[in-house]
């Protein structure tokens, strides 16, 4: 189907109940619907937005185009959870219908102020000749809907293009700060900072000075937080060329660790590191509650066709990850509450050659003696997702060349991380795999679209123990 501009910019309010029911039926017919991930009821999901703990619940919103697996008029969809594992559907929370967001409620963040959950997001407006204008809007969640509060930042400051979006807000020393992803007029990426004492008047402080200049043509979805006494800047740079085993996706997501001085606007930091070495990860966002910093990403990428497209839907969010810095090392672990989903064990065995039939959805722990190994998942005849480790080169490779229906092959079908491997912790859903390495030293996220047949796993290598649980 060829999507016209008019079709892409239809509001949900202009869609009949019958049309939505038809879309839902088409989506439900997909064999790759998830069992325990956040996914759209129809259409396209992309960036996680407004991730906030408020009134005893985690609130998650996400970018949503309801009508198909393409980028069009973005709404915000809303889900909540008390434990980050089981999510309750709260429906659409934000329909773009003001002048400022007439062409989409783009990404933004959540924060609590005056006892209410607020959001700041980018309103996307197009003129009659299709010129983009970005403004940053503030809303308040009331009765499940985001009500407009004010236009916080109506225009883009001098020196930057209209690619100016994705504000992340935090409170520090009595002031609200907002970091915004930006593109300079010379088409290089950066982030800028604003400050406000009352959420009404926002002062442009300027550009945050980093050691990355230039580094891609646009920085999306910035996020700043403190972790173990240090600042972490997470962002998604666009336009980074592949470098060895790194940067092979169409766009990247990563972090810097250092110290941000909001007075001098300097960020002293170490090297840029990718958050995820898999195929399908972008636009992450974090929140903090009870001393825990938790990250969720978009399990997908822009400008790529996925096999689910023909069923009228695309993408999901990743599992939540708890972040820490331990002995100078950045760690990402699945939240412990995931263990609530464990049902029966389908494998608990040790040896050098192990096999099992697997359910469609499961959790798997592998511990090894550090030797070479090959682990095949989603195995159907000659089809499987292959995870290989070469101890001599310390290369851990994920290979989806023959792992079901192919897609995005122009970006390669393998991803490799150089790391000493002694353990893998895997979460397999109907069309995704998330692989945590060595208790959170590295993570790889990927979509995979296997055949609709009984599947198995096979391990061969040094002595290992495999424990797996069915997720019903």
Give a written overview of the molecule.
The structure is a single chain. With 472 residues, this protein is mainly beta. The chain is 3% helix and 56% strand. It has two helices and 33 strands. It has helices spanning 5-8, 17-28; strands at residues 43-54, 57-65, 75-81, 88-94, 105-113, 116-126, 132-142, 145-153, 160-172, 175-184, 189-196, 203-207, 218-227, 230-238, 254-261, 266-269, 273-274, 282-289, 292-299, 313-314, 316-317, 321-326, 329-334, 342-358, 362-368, 373-380, 383-390, 395-399, 414-418, 423-429, 432-437, 442-447, 455-471. Strands 24, 25, 26, 27, 28, 29, 30, 31, 32 and 33 form a ten-stranded antiparallel beta sheet that branches. Strands 4-3-2-1-20 form a five-stranded mixed beta sheet, with no helix packed on it. The longest helix has 12 residues, at 17-28. The chain is globular and about 65 Å long.
List its salient traits.
single chain, mainly beta, 2 helices
Mean pLDDT: 97
Spatial gap, N to C terminus: 35 Å
Number of strands: 33
Radius of gyration: 22 Å
Q: DSSP strand (E) fraction?
A: over 45%
Number of helix segments?
Answer: 2
Sheet with the most strands?
10 strands, antiparallel
Structural class: mainly beta
Relative helix content? under 10%
Task: Categorize the overall geometry.
Answer: globular
- Spans of at least 5 consecutive residues with low confidence: none
Question: Can you give me a brief rundown of this structure?
Answer:
The chain is mostly beta strands and 472 residues long. It has helices spanning 5-8, 17-28, and strands at 43-54, 57-65, 75-81, 88-94, 105-113, 116-126, 132-142, 145-153, 160-172, 175-184, 189-196, 203-207, 218-227, 230-238, 254-261, 266-269, 273-274, 282-289, 292-299, 313-314, 316-317, 321-326, 329-334, 342-358, 362-368, 373-380, 383-390, 395-399, 414-418, 423-429, 432-437, 442-447, 455-471. The longest helix is centred in the N-terminal third of the chain and has 12 residues, at 17-28.
